[in-house]
Hints:
The structure is a single chain. The chain is α+β, with helices and mostly antiparallel strands. The chain has 3 domains: about 15-70 and about 235-250 and about 275-360, no CATH class; about 85-230, no CATH class; about 365-435, Orthogonal Bundle (Arc Repressor Mutant, subunit A). Helix content is about 50%, strand content about 10%. The chain has 21 helices and 8 strands. Strands 3-2-5-6 form a 4-stranded mixed sheet. Helix 1 packs across helix 17.
Amino acid sequence: MELVLQQKQTLNLVMTAELRQAIDLLQYSTYDLYQFIQEQQAENPLIELINSDQDSYTYHPVSQATSDAEDDSNDPLALATNDDKNLYDELLAQLNVLSLSDEQYELIHYFIQNIDENGYLQINEAEVEKIFNRSIKDIESAIEILQQFEPIGVGARHLAECLTIQAKHFYPDQSILIKIIQNDLTELANREWEAIAKRYDISLEDIQDYFLLIQTLDPKPGARLANNQVEYVEPDVIITYDHGKFSIQLNDSYLPAIRLNKDYLPYLNKQHEMSQYMNHQYKKFQWLKNSIAQRRETILKITKAIINHQVEFFEGGFARLKPLTLKDVAEEIEMHESSVSRATMNKMIQTPKGTFNMRRLFASRLSRTDGTETSQTTVKWLLQDVVNNEDKTKPLSDQKIADYLKEKKEITISRRTVAKYRNELKIPSSRQRREIVLQKN
Length: 441
């Protein structure tokens, strides 16, 4: 046996603490960033904060109803049903507007009762088969319907299924990403990059990209609806529109300025027992300043790209929202799709058309029969218009609405999709929309 010293060069993906923090920083809301800066100042003696002249930051509640296009505050029935809802209530409300058979309704209602606070379905299919005397095919079909409910990812039976549902929704063109989630989550978690790259014949850089995309998905989609606490929000980005000109402002003027505490300068780059500690803290100080500046630049770039694509929205509202995906914006600003996803996460945007989550300005593409494309949001507005103008004594069923959109608007969607959009718009079913006309004697 011969012992030999040998050099070998290998590529390894390393997620450093600084990179992890930079990624987290990008997805912080402005208020989250404010709190993070305060924490860093408490931990790092080199960080000195100069508070803004603006009054201390306070939350202001923004109702989802008032931020939407239509205000139903004058409708007493709307107010009567506007109580805070938990996850169970939200899922049940979506179930009640679907046109289902009694058997399907019974199964899905049972499933909803067995969803935990994180949004996972806790059942045994074999037991359900015995309890309801239904076939496995019927049970799986009902679960598929449940998994179309919001929040996206709810109704999954395990983590891989939860993330797969979200990946298919948010990144439908990423087929390898979906395969990795379905088959290789354990190896991915164990950082077995080379094995996965070899299996799919892709590079380590591709694996890193997919890893970052997976980080944007929510492993607990039901958690945000697990309680009834009122959420308070403040816009992170403010857009004004005047005579065809746009102005973008980041609502971060209350953030303190970050300055180096000069009292500790003598300990930097000198032979002193505290020098190593101080040099490390100085690097963290520099990282914080650079990361905040990069975050600002990224959000501004993304906002400008959104405006370039959605000019008509600022003139006509959501009815004129164009198809736009995270990938479209990422390609335009030459940034990775996961970075765009993180930068738009948890961000509220104030526009002349209302204040809402920035993600609402992204819309999936739907193809028309003439080969052109329209946005999912536009289809919802067309659906709303159809319902507003229907004969209330004979309201249109979901199938008839789908047929109308295909014939008159050249948009092909299924009955189930109509039901889903109708639910998102809080439009009752045709049976619930029917009005009684009294005949005069």
